[in-house]
């Protein structure tokens, strides 16, 4: 057994939170439900901290952090509660927060909308709920929050922060100057960066985010690929595909998939016997031939030189199992330290050799067994453990392909459930290797492997809608591109 955990890790960054939100929604759990759970958890903490006659002030911003606190107020209807909204109700930024503000209309809590933060009068409360800003913060504290933060600081009330102290940036873990210092924090779902550095107890409230939202890749994961509009040529990555010999289609599919997955430049290095056929697949491919009918030891110097100029290398598609080809791959891996996807026959070399490369290996179950890791009959936790153990032994990220794909870097395990039985047709693995290669140029290996599996599976599901069990691998790269295009990347 290796020590691994499901999902995204114990502490979620700002970007992780966006991923989990969108995956949660895709699983049918609306954000409004999470807001209800968050507000309820916060209410329990307030009740625990307050004496029955205490005056409670809730200071709420216009985002969902404020929305959580409107829910809290509804749960504290029997106590002496005032809700101070920083701004006019019409300017509450989200529908769900606005709905929860509206739901307070008939409660006996007092609502005050504070148009000008200089007018914020807290009337000497015993407990303050700081719900001005949560994970939606950008930059330094601006008005009206900045003055309100000062007002909170100037009281000697017990301050309970909702999710994070208003001013803590969950992307960096840093607090903006003027962030109200909490006496305790009720954070939602998982700890955020920076909370453990605070001098206050932090309670993490379970708000009902499905485990699957983190465990399985979902549409939210695509959000990691959002790129600034001013990206330049080369930002999308330069990829080298090494393969071919017995087969021409495999490296061509990998290269086309890499282009469709957003790579800027893709060069294929293949034996001269197949270089023309590979080129025949598409004029967009840059194909460099090396002498002979197989990749072999004579070519390694050239491969090393090309690999070092690239952001990621995909090695294996169509390579074949010749002894000298495997030796060449082992030699190549021993001499490079960049990012590498090892597929097909290259998996054996990757499993056997010491390398400084950042490796992603993409075995199907047969290949996994070939490197000594049979998973016949394993259920999902056992599969996860086998993949995590392999990843940690190989010091690599492992993407085990199957009806459910399992991805691990040895520390964390995720699964991918997109895809269908029609994808057992030849060539889909090459498309996956190329897609992961392109993503590996711009993302960390765990993200690249997971997203690659998700995208290619989704592409396969679309192809199956058109072609049923007759889907063929060469359909998939276009769908990968289309899915990314629809997502806006
Ligand atoms: N994401 C989720 O699934 C859940 C989120 N929840 C809550 O939603 C919060 C995030 O909500 P939002 O994304 O709406 O964002 P926030 O409510 O954290 O903040 C957005 C508001 O703050 C303003 N703002 C941003 N930066 C500012 C600055 N530097 N100075 C002054 N004002 C600033 C914005 O104009 C906007 O009105 C979480 O912290 C949590 O409390 C919960 O409802 C539970 C579920
Ligand atoms: K807050």
TrEMBL record:
This is Bifunctional NAD(P)H-hydrate repair enzyme. Its cofactor is K(+); Mg(2+). Binds 1 potassium ion per subunit. Residues 17-215 form the YjeF N-terminal domain. SUPFAM superfamilies: Ribokinase-like, YjeF N-terminal domain-like. Catalyzes the epimerization of the S- and R-forms of NAD(P)HX, a damaged form of NAD(P)H that is a result of enzymatic or heat-dependent hydration. This is a prerequisite for the S-specific NAD(P)H-hydrate dehydratase to allow the repair of both epimers of NAD(P)HX. Bifunctional enzyme that catalyzes the epimerization of the S- and R-forms of NAD(P)HX and the dehydration of the S-form of NAD(P)HX at the expense of ADP, which is converted to AMP. This allows the repair of both epimers of NAD(P)HX, a damaged form of NAD(P)H that is a result of enzymatic or heat-dependent hydration. The keyword Nucleotide-binding applies. Keywords: ATP-binding, Isomerase, Lyase, Metal-binding, Multifunctional enzyme, NAD, NADP, Nucleotide-binding, Potassium. GO terms for biological process: metabolite repair; nicotinamide nucleotide metabolic process. In the C-terminal section; belongs to the NnrD/CARKD family. AMP binds at residue 429. It comes from Halococcoides cellulosivorans. Homotetramer. It catalyses: (6R)-NADHX = (6S)-NADHX; (6S)-NADPHX + ADP = AMP + phosphate + NADPH + H(+); (6S)-NADHX + ADP = AMP + phosphate + NADH + H(+); (6R)-NADPHX = (6S)-NADPHX. InterPro entries: Carbohydrate_kinase_pred_CS, CARKD, Nnr, Ribokinase-like, YjeF_N_dom, YjeF_N_dom_sf. Pfam families: Carb_kinase, YjeF_N. Residues 216-487 form the YjeF C-terminal domain.
